[in-house]
Automatic annotation (TrEMBL):
The entry's keywords: Coiled coil
GO MF, one annotated term: DNA binding
Top-level taxon of the source organism: Bacteria
Region entry Disordered, spans: 110-146
Compositional bias ranges of the Basic and acidic residues kind: 120-131
Coiled-coil residue windows: 1-28
A Pfam family per the record: YbaB_DNA_bd
Feature: compositional bias, Polar residues: 137-146
Protein name: YbaB/EbfC DNA-binding family protein
Protein's organism: Amycolatopsis taiwanensis
Family matches, as InterPro entries: YbaB-like_sf, YbaB/EbfC
Amino acid sequence: MTEHRAQVDELLADYRRSRDQLASVQRELASVTASARDAAGLITATVGPRGTLTSLAIAEDAYRRYRPAELAEQIVRATGDATARALARAAEVLAPALPSETDPQALLLGTGDLEAGEIAPDKPPAERAAEEESYEDQNWIQEGTR
């Protein structure tokens, strides 16, 4: 009976260690942030752990340097770069808590072990329709016959 109790105590201790490690990883993941700038250093985008934009700083000169569409493009690009950095940092934080054969980035992206073709979005209906043969203008009734 004492041996059984020792096993139970060891299992509980393992569980508590795992739970503490998971809590630590969760806290660290929640604090992940990353920033990126445009090439001119006029725009700085900062994102949180899930890539959500949390801060955007635009220098006064950016409005003179970029046309509106270019400014928007630079903001999107800087935000994308910051998101990629945040994802890489989150993967570093998560990796020690995962089995060695698990890809932390794939886990964070929700893709697991799926191939790119398996997760590609379906084509929009209009695009699918354009690829299909159309019989809309086809006359199925022969002229002069009944």
